[in-house]
Specification:
Distance between the termini: 25 Å
Strand order of the largest sheet: 3-2-1-9-10-11
Strand content: 15-25%
Shape: globular
Helix content: 25-40%
Largest sheet: 6 strands, mixed
Number of helices: 9
Radius of gyration: 19 Å
Structural class: alpha/beta
Number of strands: 11
Length: 273
């Protein structure tokens, strides 16, 4: 793991920060990559051991399931005790929301979910998604019934327990983004988990710097009003974690690789103003 020391901010009046004595780790979209999550947890543990913060917070930005082939294991890991000494915040992603709508009878949501990688999660739970000569609605209804019967009770409870937002100091944490011009506390759940263009293209001050996933970029996107950390882990092998302490930001990432290679996470630090 390499490290680059933070630079001093040029204008202290513009600094944004988390509260004194707090370090926050925010992990982007995991999408069924339990192998990468395990690596990043290890990197977080190592990194936090070198910090003197009294309070340590680990925020997961949602989209834990679908696309990758280890959705069930990811959920198990998020239910297990995490790195010792951390508070953990688990946010709702649009994929978890689609799972819940499907479980609760919305077959249209199920179709949308399956079209965007939900089949990988069903297969991971042992459900055969192949058609059997029946109509699409009947197939979806059958898949829903099998998911209801197969999904462990604690996994269902996990999905239903997820929050839509979290705040630490000058940072707001969500899955997708916020609606420009709307106060953070009044944002709709649907915008928080699914918004794209109005948020990504906005130059407005949102009142907080918004830390989000949902929209993939090759490297973390750092803007004056947002930080995007979805680096497409399910296909790139790069799962990203933003680290915030005081006015400093750092990134921990798994190195781009195939699923079975053993590269170590890397770390880069610079100042967030």
């Amino acid at each position: 793991m390499t490290s680059v020391r933070a630079r001093a901010a040029s204008d202290p009046a513009k600094r944004v920060q988390v509260p004194h004595g707090v370090v926050v780790y925010a992990i982007g979209d995991i999408h069924g990559r339990a192998d990468l999550l395990a690596e990043l947890h290890e990197a977080v543990t190592v990194d936090s051991a070198a910090r003197a913060a009294a309070r340590r917070v680990l925020v997961y930005l949602g989209d834990y399931v679908s696309r990758g082939r280890q959705s069930r294991r990811v959920v198990d890991m998020l239910l297990e005790p995490g790195p010792p000494g951390f508070e953990r915040v688990r946010l709702l992603g649009n994929h978890e929301e689609l799972v819940l709508r499907f479980l609760d009878g919305d077959l249209g949501a199920g179709m949308q979910w399956l079209d965007h990688g939900g089949d990988a999660m069903l297969e991971d739970y042992g459900i055969d998604v192949r058609g059997s000569g029946v109509g699409e609605c009947s197939r979806l209804a059958s898949l829903r019934e099998r998911l209801q019967a197969t999904l462990p009770r604690e996994h269902d409870a996990f999905f239903r327990s997820l929050r839509t937002r979290h705040q630490e100091g000058d940072f707001g944490f969500v899955h997708a983004g916020v609606r420009p011009g709307v106060p953070f506390a009044r944002q709709s759940a649907q915008d928080l988990i699914s918004i794209r263009a109005p948020f990504l293209e906005s130059c407005e001050d949102h009142g907080l710097v918004i830390v989000h996933g949902h929209s993939i970029s090759e490297t973390p996107e750092v803007r004056h009003n947002r930080i995007g950390i979805d680096t497409g882990a399910y296909w790139s092998g790069v799962l990203s974690c933003l680290v915030l302490e005081g006015t400093e930001r750092a990134f921990l990432q798994t190195a781009s690789r195939t699923r079975d290679s053993g590269a170590c996470p890397r770390s880069e630090r610079s100042e967030l103003s």
